[in-house]
Amino acid sequence: MPIKQSTPKIAVLLPAYNEEEGLAHVIEGFRKSLPRARIIVCDNNSTDKTSEVAQKAGAELWHQALPGKGNAVRRMFREIDADIYIMCDADGSYDASAAPSLTQKLHDEKLDMIVAARASGNEKYRPGHAFGNRVFTWAMGAAFGRHFTDIFSGYRIFSRRFVRSFPMMSDKFEIEAEMTIHCLELRLPFAEVQVPFFERVGGESKLSTFGDGARIAWLMGKLYRDQQPMRFFLFGAIAIGLISLAVGLPVVFEFFETGLVERFPSAILAAVLALGAALSLTCGIILDTVKRLRIQQKMQAYLSAFTAER
Prior knowledge:
The chain is built from ten helices and seven strands. By secondary structure, the chain is of the alpha/beta class. It has two domains: 10-225, Spore Coat Polysaccharide Biosynthesis Protein SpsA, Chain A (Alpha-Beta Complex); 229-309. A seven-stranded mixed beta sheet has the order 3-2-1-4-6-5-7, with helices on both faces. Helix 1 (23-33) links the parallel strand 1 (10-16) and strand 2. Helix 5 (127-144) packs parallel to helix 8 and helix 7 runs parallel beside helix 8 (211-227). The relative contact order is 0.12.
């Protein structure tokens, strides 16, 4: 069911890097499914004919010289005004015809984010990517709650409130994980909807299985440290404390037996490790307070955007 004319304006955001083969198909698909939507292609410093294809297909063309999907999306989020934002990869792997029902759901249910999850049984990406997606989705669930089955979907629908309160930090393909964590951190209303997933137009994905996987793992580790500092540093304090006990207990037993401390290096190392454990716990307590203040600031930005809509 299409969005009615009286409903909010929609912007389709297509970050693109060397997508000349599939871009026209994507633009045409969104043009048919959402004829009144504003379609913007952000050429992320492509070396092929991406810009020419975008203009020929009738889309607005923007440029972002800084490499990385995150940089392209950041510019569009900052500068494009809309009430509903659709972010989609420009490689033809996602179903543009699902956009009307997704935007209608976001509008009717007053959601802030919908993740168009790649439907089970339609995995067209490389086995390494599929395995990595499952591993990181499991890790995300373990850390922040099991709410999503596809945290790296590049097809998402957002409210204005989400976009205006999202302090994007990622530069590249880690952006989807950051979006998911932002939504969970502020406890925003969201949904996940299964959509068909197709073969990428124009060859294999430009993602590096190991390079981008390592980058995403590093980002998730940093995000977990930032979002759950008490757990992160408490785990460090326990680990360091156990090592301190393993090193120091023999020294203590020896002292009670002989009245002497002959293993000074071990005694010093155990004391240093004990101090390290105490410092780790202290860092966790302090950063947990800082985290709460940061969440309050992000919530204030969210509420300000919400008030501006009314």
